[in-house]
Amino acid sequence: MTNETAINVENLKRFYGKFEAVSGITFNVKKGSVFGFLGPNGAGKTTTLYVLTGLLKPNAGSVKVLGLDPGSDGSELRSRIGCLLEEPGIYDTMTLYENLLFFGRAQNMNEKKIRERIKDELEFFSLSDYSKKRCATLSKGMRQKAALARAMLCEPEILFLDEPTANLDPVSSAGFRDLILELARKRGATVFLNTHRLDEAQRVCDSVAIIKSGKILACGTVEELRKNSGKHSVVVTAKNISKEIASKVTGDLGRLSRTDGDFLYYELSSEERIPILIQKLVAEGALIYEVRQEKLSLEDIFIELVEENNVA
Amino acid sequence: MWRDIRLVAWKERLQTMANKEIMIGVVILPVIYGIMFPLTAPMLSPDKNPALPLLLMLVAALISSIETVYAFAGEREANTLPTLLTTRLSDSALVLGKSLFAVTLGAISYISTILIYIISYNLLARPAGSPIFIFQDNLPLLLVYLLMPMAFCLFSTSIGMLISTKIKNTKMGAGLSTLPELPFIGLVAWVIFGNPLNIPLMLSYTIIGGGLAILGIAIFLATIGMFSREKMVLR
């Protein structure tokens, strides 16, 4: 990953008639990083991806992808990117090899290079045995792999993926995640990942943006989002203290969210309050066996942000 | 550009060869027309049967229309259109590539029809003593039979392509792409039969064929001009 910017979006707006699908969003994606664009269905993820790839024009704001304007430099941009949209987009009546050959030629690669790359991609995705089969006969997982092979064929500088694991079973999804990481790490491609699968995003993304109703609620690395959430979960294993006292000692430090036997689950507003809490518990006669800081998952952060936004 | 047009046409060929609906039409129509006409319209001279080239060019028009319906509407139904639009291929290459194949398919079907027609005529309907090669004494007639349907094929493909970029699915396109051509067949028939311009038959065919070809090219240009990736995605 470098500090160069692969995607720069500023105050992007996109309407469908009067409906504002994307409401002035701003974010940057670094070259060579895996960027997760997260949000519930209908949040504006696919619309944003379509604008970035030049399929839709923005109504306001500026968009630069690899330094190019997707609207006016669409053809040049599209020769440097790979896309796997919600549907695999492969031709069922053609063989896998023919599909790859067509898309390689469509990206203006030379014939020798196309054939070398097809061979590499088929091996990489373990699809060599299926190259002469019609795509209609492939399983969903294989079709998805085939579509990713197609998207990667021209060695794109940016790979746009729209819900790539939506139709896959858990085992295939896990394999797919590994592939995405491998593509980014080994091949140095920037990956723009549209997903509502937060576990997936947490595992593969270097940074994320959370979008809801066309607005970005948070943007940054998962660690940054945790810090900004203002919540720190701490699990204290303690004996010789009642639930009432364990709750009372928190004062304005935070709150005792729940207990489970000797485990006390606290939510504190800052990391610095942990030693103060422990001191107070000890002062009340508690015997402390273990203090463990629990990291908020991306899902916790997401739900909190979305709920806050609903209230607002 | 030419490379991209040929590439899109190549892809269309691969897809069409596997599409039974189209391939049945490509095989059956020439057989039906090629065998039926020598039996029902054995008088081959346009002076005696001037409608024959018009009827035969229906083969080319129908085949081209069926193929062009699948051009973009078929891609939309199969969910392959957005991915195709994310490639580097230009709007012109997409429209002209798909059209090239549709015109070629119509032309192949029409030439097959003519060949079947000649064979059937010799086997089933040729009067004793008349020439085996039906155009032997009238080579300009051969030109009419070759060029007029090609012009109409170009024209029908252009209409089909324009409609295919505007509709949501192939069901809508099936009727829409053929119907607009029928009045033109009527117009051609009126010019040939009624001869309102009072000009020789061969010249009528030439003017009408040239007019249809020019109109077809104009519609192609309009289709490319109106082609919008955004509208294609949103439709």
- CA gyration radius of chain A, whole angstroms: 24 Å
Low-confidence stretches of chain A: none
**CATH C-level label of the largest domain in chain A:** Alpha Beta
N-to-C CA distance of chain B: 27 Å
Summarize the structure.
By secondary structure, chain A is of the alpha/beta class.
Strand and helix layout:
The complex is a heterodimer of chains A (312) and B (235).
Chain A: E1 5-16, E2 19-30, E3 34-38, H1 45-52, E4 60-65, H2 74-78, E5 81-84, H3 96-106, H4 111-124, H5 140-152, E6 158-162, H6 170-187, E7 190-195, H7 198-204, E8 207-212, E9 215-220, H8 222-229, E10 232-239, H9 243-248, E11 254-260, E12 263-268, H10 273-283, E13 287-294, H11 298-311
Parallel strand pairs in A: 3-7, 3-8, 5-6, 6-7
Antiparallel strand pairs in A: 1-2, 1-4, 8-9, 10-12, 10-13, 11-12
Helix pairs in contact in A: 3-4, 4-5, 8-11
Chain B: H1 2-17, H2 20-40, H3 52-77, H4 81-85, H5 91-125, H6 139-164, H7 170-178, H8 182-194, H9 201-226, H10 229-234
Task: Characterise the protein shown here.
In chain A, 37% of the residues lie in helices and 29% in strands. Chain A is an alpha/beta fold. Chain A has 11 helices and 13 strands. The radius of gyration of chain A is 24 Å and the shape is elongated. In chain A, α4 runs antiparallel to α5 (140-152). The two termini of chain A are 36 Å apart. Chain B is mostly helical. Chain B is 78% helix and 0% strand. Chain B is built from 10 helices and no strands. In chain B, α2 (20-40) runs parallel beside α5. The longest helix of chain B is centred in the middle third of the chain and has 35 residues, at 91-125. Chain B starts with a helix and ends with a helix. The model of chain B has no long low-confidence stretch (mean pLDDT 81). The chains are: A alpha/beta (312), B mainly alpha (235). Chain A binds chain B through residues 16, 50, 53-57, 74-76, 78-79, 81, 83, 85, 87-94, 98, 102-103, 105-108, 134, 147, 160, and chain B through 4, 7, 10-11, 14-15, 18-19, 78-80, 82-90, 229-230, 233-234.
